[in-house]
Amino acid sequence: MPKKKELSFEENLAQLEQIVAKLEGGNATLEEIMADYTQGVELSASCFKALKKAEKQIDVLIKENESGIEEAPLVIEEER
After folding, report:
1. Most C-beta atoms within 10 A of its C-beta, which of 46, 55, 58, 65?
2. What is the pTM of this model?
């Protein structure tokens, strides 16, 4: 069986937004709500995974100094 194409963060987020809009519309059956909720949880997990990966990449900032390259953690203003 061919491997399912992994969607980008933006594609996952767009699908998640569509599901939220559909659920907020209030016109779905219970079965549709459960299926959409399940898909939404999977999309949310995928988005979170992508964000954590990006966060790890950003956490290692390159700072040049006299001895070469030094790694430094990312400090976000809001977290101070």
Report:
1. 46
2. 0.66
